[in-house]
């Protein structure tokens, strides 16, 4: 079963329409299969009963009549009459013989023999012995084939290929009376009828359900596309009309109202953040000018560092708020060249940043935001790991940027928390490390804005000791 699970998951449809249609088809197949089995069994039993009663009727008539001498040969029937003396009856004639007609290879039908005995016993004609079996017409008497075709020609039915042989030995008699009844090919016709009926029901029911589900799933598919587009752009243009069944139309209308409310809240947030940024940066700039009048140089440096820290934190907060609604368009950019330019900025400032292995990878991205993410990640590596090594490569359908440091790493239990806002690995928050814990959060938001991911992992040496931290930024190529 474990080997079949991947195959079944691949065959199982993923869409709502496909799953509902498959469920209906399987249920209909099960119900139709059970009904066909019951109908086939009833038809089979009815056919068997009809054959036995026909044979019993002919044998009973032969027992009541005095057969007399065998009839003279009819030259016209010589080509289709089985050998041996016959009693004329309706259809095939009754054969009288001294030996049992049962031959080697014939299989007796116990249920048919029991039923034939009961029918004859009800008429006080219980035989001393009886046998019932089926035999192919060609094996019983080849000349019967023409008679079988002639017997069923007026019904426009296919000629039978088997005959039911019922033989009885009356009480106190040494002879056998043998009746033959053609087995009509009604069972095959029944199977064809059931198959055609099943196909018609499948076409009618599944076709009607497909049309109904199409009316439901088309608006849902359009709504899904609309949701994806709104999540990416936050643009209210192109809202869907409330169409389809009432439930789906109400869902679309509720979604449109939700979009309007979200867009309004985002606009209010942007206005509020813009006002905060303006109102805070203005007094900070004034403070930066005033501290120049402080005579103590050390105190002046500490005050300037504090103002600079507040300014950076404010920039991070405003950038994090704007990352979901970027204003700059995507551009096709050669990623290794962009990374090289950022690394050169740090080298020009005398920072310990090295460029590792690189590969040429071109993709659509927003260069300004990717630069911001790289600066945050490299700055974080320098702050806690003293040295940063940046490499660029391609892994499958993604471009991968790796930033490694030589610091103490992060406890495994805290790695996931480090990507959350206002979380810092250094609890002291002293002036050496600084920051408000938004750098990694902003880098992750920028990666997700481009459909990518940001992950952190400790680097370990051969002895298992932590030798640094690696930040992995993955950006999809498509």
UniProtKB/TrEMBL annotation:
Compartment(s) where it occurs, according to its Swiss-Prot or TrEMBL record: Cell membrane
Lineage: Bacteria, Pseudomonadati, Pseudomonadota, Alphaproteobacteria, Sphingomonadales
UniProt entry tagged with the keyword Phosphoprotein: yes
Catalysed reactions, semicolon-separated: ATP + protein L-histidine = ADP + protein N-phospho-L-histidine
Its membrane topology: Multi-pass membrane protein
Domain spans labelled Histidine kinase: 275-478
Enzyme Commission number(s): 2.7.13.3
GO molecular function term, any single one: ATP binding
Region (Disordered): 62-90
Transmembrane segments: 20-40, 189-213
UniProt entry keywords in alphabetical sequence: ATP-binding, Cell membrane, Kinase, Membrane, Nucleotide-binding, Phosphoprotein, Transferase, Transmembrane, Transmembrane helix
Family matches, as CDD domains: HATPase, HisKA
Ranges where the HAMP domain occurs: 214-267
UniProt source species: Novosphingobium bradum
Superkingdom classification of source: Bacteria
Protein name: histidine kinase
């Amino acid at each position: 079963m474990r080997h079949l699970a991947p195959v079944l998951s691949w065959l199982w449809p993923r869409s709502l329409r496909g799953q509902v249609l498959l469920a209906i088809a399987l249920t209909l197949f099960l119900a139709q299969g059970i009904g066909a089995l019951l109908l086939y069994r009833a038809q089979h039993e009815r056919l068997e009963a009809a054959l036995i009663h026909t044979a019993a009727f002919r044998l009973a008539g032969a027992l009541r009549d005095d057969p007399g001498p065998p009839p003279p040969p009819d030259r016209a029937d010589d080509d289709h009459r089985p050998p041996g003396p016959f009693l004329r009856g309706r259809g095939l004639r009754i054969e009288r013989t001294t030996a049992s007609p049962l031959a080697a290879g014939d299989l007796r039908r116990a249920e048919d023999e029991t039923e034939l005995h009961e029918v004859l016993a009800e008429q006080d004609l219980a035989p001393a012995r009886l046998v019932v079996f089926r035999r192919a017409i060609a094996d019983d008497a080849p000349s019967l084939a023409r008679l079988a075709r002639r017997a069923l020609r007026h019904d426009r039915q296919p000629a039978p290929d088997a005959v039911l042989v019922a033989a009885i030995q009356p009480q106190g008699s040494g002879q056998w009376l043998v009746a033959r009844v053609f087995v009509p090919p009604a069972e095959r016709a029944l199977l064809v009828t059931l198959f055609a009926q099943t196909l018609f029901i499948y076409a009618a029911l599944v076709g009607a359900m497909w049309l109904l589900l199409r009316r439901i799933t088309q608006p849902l598919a359009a709504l899904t596309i609309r949701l994806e587009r709104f999540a990416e752009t936050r643009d209210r243009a192109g809202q869907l009309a409330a169409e389809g069944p009432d439930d789906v139309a109400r869902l679309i209308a509720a979604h449109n109202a939700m979009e309007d409310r979200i867009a309004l809240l985002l606009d209010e947030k942007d206005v509020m953040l813009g006002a905060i940024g303006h109102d805070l940066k203005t007094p900070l700039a004034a403070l930066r000018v005033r501290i120049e009048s402080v005579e103590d140089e050390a105190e002046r440096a500490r005050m300037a560092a504090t103002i600079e820290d507040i300014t950076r934190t404010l920039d991070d907060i405003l950038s994090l708020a704007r990352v979901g609604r970027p204003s700059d368009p995507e551009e096709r950019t050669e990623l290794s060249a962009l990374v090289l330019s950022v690394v050169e900025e740090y080298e020009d400032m005398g920072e310990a940043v090295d460029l590792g292995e690189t590969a040429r990878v071109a993709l659509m991205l927003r260069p300004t935001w990717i630069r911001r993410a790289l600066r945050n990640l490299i700055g974080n590596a320098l702050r806690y790991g003293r040295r940063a090594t940046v490499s660029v490569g391609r892994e499958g359908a993604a471009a991968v940027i790796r930033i490694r440091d030589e610091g103490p790493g992060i406890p495994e239990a805290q790695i996931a928390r480090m990507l959350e806002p206002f979380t810092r690995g250094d609890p002291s928050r002293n002036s050496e490390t600084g920051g408000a814990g938004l750098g990694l959060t902003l880098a992750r938001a920028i990666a997700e804005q481009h459909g990518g991911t940001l992950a952190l992992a400790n680097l370990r040496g051969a002895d298992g000791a932590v030798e640094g931290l690696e930040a992995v930024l993955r950006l999809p190529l498509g």
